[in-house]
UniProtKB/TrEMBL annotation:
Chain residues that bind Mg(2+): D439, T441, D833, D837
Domain called P-type ATPase N-terminal: residue spans: 52-100
Residue numbers binding ATP: D439, K440, T441, E537, F578, K601, R638, T718, G719, D720, R806, K812, N836, D837
Protein name: Phospholipid-transporting ATPase
Organism of origin: Paramecium sonneborni
Family assignment from sequence similarity: Belongs to the cation transport ATPase (P-type) (TC 3.A.3) family. Type IV subfamily.
Transmembrane stretches, start-end: 81-99, 105-123, 321-342, 376-395, 895-911, 923-943, 964-989, 1001-1021, 1033-1054, 1074-1094
């Protein structure tokens, strides 16, 4: 093992060299990395490279120059259709059964199909390869014995120290060694999660000595780093720094968040965590430069470990198509067996009448099985095109082009963003959706929070009933310029000026808002700009600023607040981060009088359990504040509670010692830290609450109503409280007064089961044939076992709308999976905008990601990414419906056109005793699918339009009127092909039997009949597109006749130039015969005109039914439109109206609600939780 140890001293780190971090690659021919769980934790020394670990090269492409051919061929022949035609080509080389003189002619169209797919794969992969090369060849500054030198990113190794300048991207995962800003630096994670807000990273305090070191001295420093094995958790990093003995930093120099321990050699060991760690792909902002120690490179970096391949998805139509292919193949085998047996037995029965065949009767009788199998093989080759060879590649190309049409559609674009199709093979699935699951915040709302109402020590502000209480325009002009605030209550400012006990409490309240957050401050042109990881936090801080309390920033550990032109400083001691499990965050600060205060904010359901229950004033204040929060929730606002407590120095010292020691543990570290956080956050004193408004996105109500009218059932899955979700649902037309509503909110298993049973009974009696909405809490879902999961689905199936409140990201995924597993033959679609929606999006049949405030994590994981919720109208009701309609016709048409060209052999065989005979020239036969009949149907599938987009959006009920693909529609196409093939052969054979002798006396009967049938089939198949097309442009008409002309041109060429082919000179003979044109006109009348009349009758019937439905809608108006969010007199029912029927949503506001929800939600660590949930 070779390491760069030129300047290594025998002491103190000789024990750790050579490194033992290497892992073994798995596999034989194609080496793969082991799973990260099978790796081991690492130990490295600064400036000593570990060359046994992979370098920093990354590779996202699937192929290389040498592996493209073998790997792509393996991929191509993983498709059953390609294997089928490969075998058929081999059978064509067997002289005993070959109909192509031993030539594998089918391999030519197979080669074309594979080549088209391979070219598509090559160009897609080439884009990734170019991107990889650009990434690997970027230049970074690496610290060496000769100072900083430029190296390619791909040459960076673990143990290197690199320098990153402002605006540059980090080439690897690094630990902060030193920075230009007193150990702090700011990074942007837009490349990772789409968030543009800055995040702060810090140099560990034990490394402060490096600030005064030049590059040469820094290179000489050798510090031992022990840290986690590579893992995909973006926001988790654990490690330790062990300092050499000559670094005698005093404990007093260490911050309280740097635990000191000692190893066996009595060397000081310090704890590292995620605040000291920067990911590859982040960019440096507002910091001139940073030096970082490389700890993970290449495929071991966290961003690469997170770039796993998405689960492949296929549409329902594709699954049905594969079933039809298998069905057709079995029908082919049966017909081949029938034809072979008929042929053998016919020859036995008519042996004396066919002496010219020179058959051996004994051989026929004794080897009847062998002869049957021989004929079966020949018939199999004749009927090869039962399975359409071009169907897969045609459908694939059509979907790709349909995806391009969606992307360039102006109606699918917002001001700054266009719709991106990332999985085009699901285009038609958009027209087949049965259930839509949607997040609320950021999906149907803008995730643009506005500071609206507050409750301060029992007094509510913002719920203005008197016009005189509203700030006028002049007063608003004198207020600080802020965003995210819609607060105009003059009473607050009057109370703040009273200089009494309540005014002091108001100051205390706003100090809490100004200090309890994780917002970073940067200055642009002398003005403060807040970078918040949560829009809720930004709204609260802006609200505090609007009321006169401005957060200035964090300077050397001091949080600075400006109030009445005075700067008030608080020392930041600890930040207890928000997680979706904790549903709260806390900070511990020390004021200028050395008083230590814990400030906590979060979900009211969590904060209530942490309050000091022995304090009577606390309980009285809680009762009043809960009433205020219910009022806020009835307005559709998101709510949270604020609480605090004072800590003595002894309490804090004892707790921080335990907390920092727990941070050093390698086993159960997170559990220990959470336990200690819960311990310090007890016995809090309530100070108030907040109400924040989350604005609805544009046209959400209209979009929801149209989706419901289209027959799609909508499930809203949100972390908000029940009341907030209900009010938002009214605002966006999901709920209305005419609906019956079932509410399931249970605190235990028995209550949850009782309410499920009660709801089922109500559906069978009171709510029968009435629209119903189901509202259920996440806690209730937790209490349901597998049996009651089935009952819950039975109840939910009967409801038009389901609203699940206070559900976690894992529960969102579980609900989608529950519906998929228990409701047969449905298509689910999930819509979300944040990292917490990724699991739900990937679990659904179709994932829609909205590029929103919460970043692009959901958009990247989705099959389709859109800019706004309203785009779903165009995407589903127009593109989805039309893609499904056109693609199901394309699939049926491909089977039809192949049956039309193949089955004439079967019908003709009744004339020749089923002797296996090919009617067509083998080369023209193989060109049939590839050149003569492929382009017109592609043009149809891309451009045809039954109704205009505007009409479809105005009449969403048409979404469900499209004929669905099933066995019946398949047999319609099958029978159509079979019948029309019989019409063709029985029109041609009797008519041309006496007219197939040319002027020179040559008999051209078989060749003429075969090519006449072939020509008629091509004409019928191409003209058939006119039958089911709703619009015909000049281009589509040209392609139809160009395909026919191409056939005639190749037929003429082969007939003229070759004397060896059976079709030699048949072209002139055929097309100079007037009877040929007479038969053609008769066939067109019997096939195309009949189909056209039938198609037009179907269109007329559909339009007639649609008009009838419109008349019914006029006679029976739809349910009452949305109720204003502030009118809820009839929403609830008196508690005594039903005895033990709390599952029904009451008509009057519920008093004494057992719980409420929350609004506060930071994005930090969401992806880690999503990954853990996925593992569980």
């Amino acid at each position: 093992m070779q390491n760069s140890q030129s300047e290594l001293q025998p002491d103190p780190w000789q024990l750790y060299l050579p490194y033992d971090n290497k892992y073994q690659l798995k596999g034989c021919c194609f080496k793969t990395r082991p799973n990260w769980r099978d790796m081991k934790d690492r130990t490295i020394i600064t400036n000593i490279q570990d060359r046994d670990l992979p370098d920093n090269t990354i590779k996202t492409c699937k192929y290389t120059f040498w592996t493209f051919l073998p790997l792509n061929l393996i991929e191509q022949f993983s498709k059953m259709a390609n294997i089928y035609f490969l075998i058929i080509g081999y059978l064509e080389t067997i002289a005993l059964i070959s109909i192509t003189d031993g030539q594998p002619i089918i391999w030519f169209p197979l080669f074309i199909v594979i080549a088209i797919s391979a070219v598509k794969d090559f160009f897609e992969d080439h884009k990734r390869q170019v991107s990889d090369i650009d990434e690997n060849n970027r230049i970074a500054l690496v610290l060496t014995n000769y100072g900083l030198i430029e190296k390619k990113w791909s040459q960076i190794l673990v143990g290197d120290i690199i320098r990153v300048e402002q605006g540059e991207y980090f080439p690897a995962d690094v630990i902060v060694i030193k920075t230009s800003e007193k150990g702090n630096c700011f990074i942007e994670t837009k490349n990772l999660d789409g968030e543009t807000n800055l995040k702060i990273k810090k140099q560990h305090k034990s490394l402060q000595f490096t600030r005064n070191l030049n590059d040469h001295n820094l290179y000489k420093e050798q510090i031992l780093i022990h840290y986690d094995k590579p893992n995909p958790y973006l926001y988790k990093f654990n490690g330790t720094i062990t300092m050499p003995p000559d670094h005698n930093l005093s404990d007093g120099d260490q911050s309280r968040d740097s635990i000191i321990n000692y190893d066996a050699e009595h060397r000081k060991v310090y704890q590292l965590d995620e605040v000291n760690f920067i990911l590859r792909g982040c960019s440096l902002r507002n910091t001139h430069w940073i030096y970082g120690l490389v700890v993970y490179t290449g495929f071991d970096t966290k961003i690469m470990l997170n770039s796993t391949k998405a689960r492949p998805k296929s549409s329902t139509l594709e699954s049905q198509m594969n079933f039809f292919i298998i069905l057709v193949f079995f029908i082919q085998l049966v017909i081949c067996l029938f034809s072979a047996q008929y042929s053998v037995f016919w020859q036995l029965n008519n042996f004396m009448d066919i002496p010219y065949l020179e058959l051996d009767e004994n051989d026929l009788q004794t080897n009847i099985v062998f002869r049957t199998m021989e004929r079966w093989g020949t018939w199999l080759l004749i009927y090869t095109n039962f399975v359409p060879i071009s169907l897969l590649v045609t459908l694939e190309m059509v979907k790709y082009l349909q995806g391009m049409m969606i992307e360039i559609d102006k109606e699918c674009m917002t001001q700054n963003q266009k719709t991106e199709v990332q999985t085009s093979n699901l285009n038609e699935e958009l027209g087949n959706v049965n259930y839509m699951f949607t997040d609320k915040t950021g999906t149907i709302t803008k995730n643009l929070m506005e500071f609206k109402t507050i409750s301060i020590f029992g007094k509510s502000y913002g719920m203005i009933n008197n016009r005189s209480q509203i700030l006028n325009n002049q007063e608003l002009k004198n207020m600080p310029e802020v965003t995210n605030v819609d607060f105009k209550d003059k009473q607050l400012f009057n109370d703040l000026q009273q200089n009494d006990e309540h005014s002091r409490r108001i100051i205390e309240y706003f100090m809490h808002l100004t200090l309890c957050h994780t917002i970073l401050v940067e200055y642009e042109q002398g003005k403060i700009k807040y970078n918040a990881s949560s829009p809720d936090e930004l709204a609260l801080l802006m609200g505090a600023k609007f009321c006169g309390f401005e957060y200035v920033g964090l300077d050397d550990g001091m949080m600075i607040v400006k109030y009445k032109d005075q700067l008030i400083k608080y020392k930041l001691l600890q930040v207890l981060e928000f997680t979706s499990a904790r549903k709260r965050m806390s900070v511990i600060v020390q004021d200028q009088n050395d008083k230590i205060i814990l400030l906590c904010k979060g979900a009211d359901s969590m904060i209530i359990n942490l309050l000091d229950k022995q304090n009577i004033q606390n309980l009285e204040l809680l009762q009043i504040t809960e009433q205020h929060l219910e009022q806020y929730a009835e307005k559709g606002l998101r709510t949270l509670l604020l609480a605090q407590k004072e800590l003595s120095q002894q309490q804090y010292d004892e707790w921080i010692t335990k907390y920092l020691k727990a941070g050093l543990q390698t086993i159960n570290r997170d559990e220990l830290l959470l336990s200690l956080q819960d311990q310090i956050e007890k016995n809090l004193n309530l100070i108030g609450g907040t109400g924040i408004e989350d604005k609805l996105q544009d046209d959400v109500g209209i979009t929801m109503q149209k989706i419901l009218n289209s027959g799609i059932k909508i499930w809203v899955l949100t972390g908000d409280k029940l009341e907030t979700a209900i009010n938002i649902s009214y605002a966006c037309n999901l709920l209305n007064d005419s609906q019956q509503k079932i509410v399931i909110s249970a605190d235990d298993q028995f209550e949850a089961q009782f309410k499920i049973n009660q709801g089922l009974d109500q559906m069978k009696s009171q709510f029968l044939n009435r629209t119903t909405a189901l509202i259920i809490s996440g806690d209730s879902l937790i209490h349901l076992d597998e049996k009651y999961h089935i009952k819950f689905i039975e109840l939910a199936k009967q409801c038009h709308t389901v609203i699940a409140c206070r559900v976690s990201p894992k529960q969102k995924q579980e609900l989608v999976q529950l519906v998929k597993d228990n409701i047969y033959n449905i298509v689910t679609m999930a819509v979300g905008d944040g990292a917490n929606d990724v699991n739900m999006i990937t679990a659904a049949n179709i994932g829609i990601g909205i590029k929103g405030v919460e970043g692009n994590q959901a958009a990247r994981a989705a099959d389709y990414s859109i800019g706004e919720f309203k785009i779903l109208q165009q995407l589903l009701l127009y593109h989805g419906r039309e893609c499904y309609r056109r693609n199901q016709v394309l699939v049926g048409y491909n089977f039809y056109k192949n049956l039309l060209i193949v089955l004439p052999h079967f019908w003709f065989s009744f004339y020749n005793g089923f002797s296996p005979l090919n009617l067509y020239d083998p080369w023209l036969y193989q060109f049939y699918n590839m050149f003569y009949t492929s382009l017109p149907i592609m043009i149809y599938a891309i451009l045809d339009q039954q109704y205009t987009p505007k009409f479809l959006l105005q009449n969403p009920q048409l979404y469900q009127t499209t004929n669905k693909v099933n066995l019946l529609t398949f047999f319609f196409w099958f029978c159509s092909g079979a019948i029309q093939s019989a019409i063709v052969i029985y029109s041609v054979f009797p008519s041309m039997e006496q007219t197939s002798i040319d002027k020179e006396g040559r008999i051209l009967f078989l060749s003429s009949v075969g090519m006449a049938v072939f020509c008629y089939a091509i004409i019928i198949v191409n003209l058939k597109i006119f039958v089911f097309s709703y619009m015909n442009s000049i281009g589509s008409v040209l392609f139809i006749f160009a395909s026919i002309f191409l056939y005639l041109l190749t037929y003429l060429f082969l007939s003229k130039v070759s004397n060896k082919l059976d079709i030699s000179h048949t072209f002139i003979h055929l097309f100079s015969n007037a009877q040929f044109y007479f038969i053609l006109s008769g066939i067109i009348v019997l096939t195309i005109f009949f189909d056209l009349a039938l198609a037009r009758w179907s269109i007329f019937s559909e339009q007639e039914l649609f008009e009838i439905q419109k008349i019914r809608d006029i006679q029976e108006p739809p349910p009452q439109s949305m109720m204003p969010p502030d009118r809820f007199e009839n929403l609830f029912q008196e508690e005594d109206a039903y005895d033990d029927t709390s599952a029904l949503l009451p008509i009057k506001p519920v008093k004494n609600r057992k719980y409420t929800g929350y609004a506060f939600a930071q994005q930090e660590k969401k992806l880690d939780e999503a990954l853990r949930n996925a593992e569980n």
